[in-house]
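The aim of this short unit is practical: by the end, you should be able to scan a pair of folded records and say something sensible about each. We start with the first protein, listed as its amino acid sequence and then its structure tokens.
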Amino acid sequence: MKSFRIASLCVALATLCLSAVARAADEPAKPLRALFVLGGCCHDYAHQKDILTKGIGERARVEFVVAYDPSTTTTHLNPVYENPDWASGFDVVIHDECTSDVKDLAMIDRILAPHRHGLPGVVLHCGMHCYRSEGWPKAIIPWFEFTGLQTTAHAAQEPIAVTFLPGDSPITHGLANWTTIREELYNNYAGKLLDTATPLARGKQTVRDRRQRKITSDNVVVWTNNYHGTKVFATTLGHNNETVSDPRYLDLVTRGLLWSCGKLNPQYLK
């Protein structure tokens, strides 16, 4: 009789455990908390902050805190970085600022420190052209170590044919090649990414020089980077609002963001 009671108790406990696991599996995942830093020169950040947060939020369980700096210069530091603990409480940071002439090494180190210690990052478009400290353009400055790309310029705006590279990256799984509207193709200085980076897509663009001769460039436009063990997703695409609002662009950035956090799975994809 005693053995029967013990067996019954074990069955009851197992049932309760299985029920709890089932309920946990049915509950939606806790949203990621993302800090979205943007502002500075040359882009319609006032609208792009809304386009991107809405588009990513419709695709994934991500909640945003937006640090938008309305300054339109390359010299103004986003005020969010004035706090030494600027990244506290966030699961990922999206860098979409355009501040090439913010050069103070102590401040750049403050920006990079959370990422060196494991905070995932996403870098979009002009985020690649920021924080050009001493030694730029020939030296691999601290910011380039984070982005994974040494880039110095872009061509005139013309369509870019985006081709995803063969491989097993979950970010690009199921994504199709496409051609953008008139966009900026950023160069790959010395023709390559840093050794810590892995290319995911290339962009080919044809422009005309001053003598109206056609010049075709082919550069990496999407990649991942291993920054001291931290995952970074990056793309140089995304100058114009029409590109940023393109569902193909939003799919790509969403998947890259989730990948950087180790959350590219059905629990976080909507």
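Turning to the second protein, read its sequence before its tokens, just as you did above.
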Amino acid sequence: MINQRTAVVTGASSGFGRLTAEAFAADGWRTYATMRNTETKNAKVAAELLRAGISVVELDVTSNASVDAAAKLIVEGAGAVDVLVNNAGTAHFGIQEAYTPESVERQYATNVIGPLRVNRAFLPSMRERKTGLVVYVSSIVGRVVLPYSSVYSSSKWALEALAEASFYELAPFGVDVAIVEPGAFATEILGKTESADDAARIETYGRFAQLADERVHGLVAAAQGRDPADVAKVILRLANAPHGTRELRTVVPENPIVEGINNAVAPLQRGLLEAMNMGELLPKVPA
């Protein structure tokens, strides 16, 4: 198809990632759904996506070799990438003290270092063309703090900082950045959460250990009645929006507390950069 736009979605084997890849394809985009284990655990999903006209590419965000190989294949096949969706992620919920450093490192390897690695592979071509959009799938707990969510939440806070910094750094090159902050949705990630791995330490928290377990059950309850496809629709809307009109942060569904934080901080952040003589990195505010 002439002038067909190209989207790349990480973590597309399930949840927001798969729904987003399907939404792009249905809208006429050349779509690359990336995931691990395309020939084993995710072979069935890969086959289904292929039948829907979506290209499936093996990509493990924790591996330099895997990311570089995938990016080479995609860029050579598509010629250019218009939208990159950093969606791949895992979730750790439990008592902070009871997580070993090794477990926290695994969380950060996927949720923080992973997007950095993927960006390094795809951003050069976007900057060279002076166009493109990078979407980060974060979370409302990337802006607020809840007990027993600190490991996951801190990884999303880190992701938000990286994303917003790149929002400024990439603006002079014509590349937009958008952060999508979902609340609780009934996706597969809720069934794959990783609990704290130091059982002996958990026991010392007594009845509060039970409270930590109830945290995940509360997320499942909060997700009832919400359609995960709403997140995919927001990402597609951002992708189709003209350059310079995309909002930095979008909360799904609407959340007055998180939106209040975003709205309060934005002008302060802009004022800080202006005061530090970095105004040239600020995207122009639409009239």
